[in-house]
Amino acid sequence: MSIESTAVTRIVAIGGGHGLGRVLSSLSDYGSQVTGVVTTTDNGGSTGRIRACQGGIAWGDMRNCINQLITEPSIGSMIFEYRFRGNGELDGHNLGNLMLTALDNLCIRPLDAINLIRDMLHVKPYIIPMSEHPSDLTAITYGGKIIRGETSVDELAEIPKRLYLEPAIPATKEAVNAIMEADIILLGPGSFLTSIMPVLLLRDIEQALKVSTAKIAFITNLDKEKGPAGEMSLETMLHWCERAMAGRLIDTIITDVPQPQLGPQYQQLVLDLASNNHEWRHDRNKLKHAVERLIASR
Question: Does the model's pTM come out above 0.85?
Fold first, then answer.
């Protein structure tokens, strides 16, 4: 399928980190027809350190997505991707995170800060934070313990009973509008509990997904996750997503192996998706082909 034949197709990809960046970069030829709605609850690494001293939303996942969408290397992109090394306080910090934080401190909307960087680096797909308000991913265990922060959730020894955001925050209105106008919505791949689920926990996005007329697809990981999400079956993940979407069912599973345990309500696109160099990483061209197959089946 050519790009021209799908000129009006609007695609929204939901998630964070390397997985969402991989999807967005695979669809970069679609330009502004593509929107990434990005989780903003990370509290680890450079992002976590900035949040601890400056507050604000987590920038790391958005920076990661922008990095993977840079198609024309430049001095600007080298600066944005630069990571400090050494023994001082800057060690481990990514300059892109600091640039976005600085723009935020200049009283620019987080989304405006991202758009300034997108324009500077000639990134065509839209990158929208799930919210412009800071919040932390929080889990309740079956024993009743409350675990706060993405890094702590990832370190749980068991699957949590449920997740929520603390405090409850509104979704970015542009993210809600993109979902309402989408023809295709992609969930994953990536860290299920800490990249995909945080976006779905927003009330505004829950309601937008509930009434969306788009085809919704879940892209499976190619390797088992570490942490509690690695103990979740695909059926459980789909149930968690559908519960967070107020009962809206997922239409299609994009996977590299057949999933015979799933019911007939799910269409399955079973395709070779792995990179030739890294079997656990999705190949960009194969992902693009999978999405174009999804578009053709609408």
Answer: yes
